[in-house]
Write a structure and sequence with these properties.
This protein is an alpha+beta fold.
């Protein structure tokens, strides 16, 4: 966070300052956020600064998109003409566990799991009675339950699959679909971050938690939120398109 002078050419007769908040970390695969806060400033000075940033970003191969800070999930209750469009896939995506083949599971089995240790071999007592051995073998052959080693193998496989599923981001199919359609990650849902009891986070501004993971189109004209398995919310970015003259409908 830093203070920025809006009137560097001294066009105004009063002090024109604003507060700018930036992301502390920049990831090329996601959006970089700028938040501007001002009080009692001249509107056209703020607009000139934003337009200057947009031209500079365009020369650097980037795009500056104006967007509301709060996530628009309840617009259908307050703005009937700007309500989001719900989109559902015809077929829900399959569970992520079904994509793990045996080779992946075998390679991931002993990775980072202290409980996954090789099973210790069981030594048979050489002095055991042969009659007892034959009776035990006959009971094992007649039993319908799988051997203990097979049960342990199944339990280890299920535990490994659960660990592998935790390493995959939530709604992986929906994310891949949006990225294929030229969308880029804007903000993550609050539920995808560690709990505040596990990780202490501090912000220089009052951060509003986001209910859904949100993507923005590279043109800046629309947002898409992932609200469930195979469920999306399409929201037009009227704040950005209202300033773009080439996107407005032309009179006949």
């Amino acid at each position: 966070m830093f203070k920025l002078d809006l009137d560097q050419q001294r066009k105004s007769t009063r002090v024109e300052n604003c507060m700018v908040h930036l992301d502390a970390v920049q990831n090329p695969m996601t959006c970089f956020h700028l938040s501007i806060n001002w009080l009692n400033c001249t509107n056209h000075l703020v607009d000139e600064m934003v337009q200057g940033w947009a031209r500079m970003a365009d020369r650097c191969g980037m795009r500056l998109v104006e967007a509301p800070r709060a996530q628009d999930t309840a617009l259908e209750d307050s703005h009937p003409f700007h309500s989001p469009i719900r989109i559902n896939l015809e077929r829900p995506p399959p569970p992520i566990e079904e994509l793990f083949d045996d080779e992946w599971i075998h390679e991931f089995q002993f990775f980072g799991d202290p409980d996954s240790e090789p099973e210790s071999s069981v030594d048979l007592d050489s002095d055991a009675d042969s009659d007892n051995d034959e009776e035990q073998l006959s009971q094992d052959s007649s039993s319908e339950e799988p051997p203990k080693c097979e049960q342990l193998s199944r339990a280890r496989r299920a535990r490994t699959v659960r660990r592998m599923a935790k390493c995959v981001p939530a709604f992986a199919f929906e994310r891949e679909l949006l990225e294929e359609q030229n969308f880029i990650l804007d903000v993550e849902a609050e539920s995808n971050f560690p709990a505040s009891s596990l990780l202490h986070r501090e912000y220089t501004f009052e951060r509003q938690g986001h209910q859904y993971t949100q993507y923005v189109h590279r043109s800046g004209t629309a947002f898409v939120q992932i609200c469930g398995p195979g469920q999306f919310l399409w929201i037009n970015n009227y704040l950005f398109t209202s300033h773009q003259s080439h996107m407005r409908p032309q009179a006949a």
